[in-house]
Amino acid sequence: NVFGRPLQPCSEDGMAKTGFTRSGQCIDQENDTGSHHICIDLSSTAPDGSDEDFCEVTGQDDWCAEDMPCHEDLNRDCPVENWCICQWAFERYLAQAGGCDAVQVIECDAVNSKAIEAYREDPEEHAAALACLESRCNI
């Protein structure tokens, strides 16, 4: 994870199972072109009090408010809460929400270190995303 420790699960029991491979973790997968490495709590509100979620801000279909197969039992449906989002989608979310204080809670223990590595490869292009992760995760 971003702290150099083992990657923690993003989703857990009682939540919809997340991850590009639906493993519950924001793992690094070679064929994951979106790099689903950022774990955010879609059930939270942003520090600035904004009540718009990731889907509303980024203009996606409102899958954020849907139920999907549960982390602990794929035969049941649970609410989408913690979710692995794409690195590029996180950047768009920051820009459209109005900055780091306007985005939902980042679950830092479950954010893959590959996100920080990728953002640091081109710190000018990814400055806002890099600064947000560094600030919110205290790294």
If you had to describe this structure to a student in words, what would you say it looks like?
The chain is α+β, with helices and mostly antiparallel strands and 139 residues long. It is 25% helix and 12% strand. The chain is built from 4 helices and 4 strands; from the N terminus they run E-H-E-E-E-H-H-H. The strands form 2 sheets. The protein has a two-stranded antiparallel sheet. A hairpin with a 7-residue loop joins strand 2 (67-69) and strand 3. The chain is globular, with a radius of gyration of 14 Å. The N and C termini lie close together (11 Å). The model has no long low-confidence stretch (mean pLDDT 93).
Short characterization:
This protein has 4 helices and 4 strands. By secondary structure, it is α+β, with helices and mostly antiparallel strands. The longest helix has 11 residues.
Mean pLDDT: 93
Q: Helical segment tally? A: 4
Amino- and carboxy-terminal Cα gap? 11 Å
Main beta-sheet strand count, sense and barrel state:
2 strands, antiparallel
Poorly predicted tracts of residues: none
Record field, number of beta strands: 4
State the secondary-structure class.
alpha+beta
Order of helices and strands: EHEEEHHH
Radius of gyration: 14 Å
- Shape designation: globular
Proportion of residues in β-strands: 5-15%
Strand order of the largest sheet: 1-4
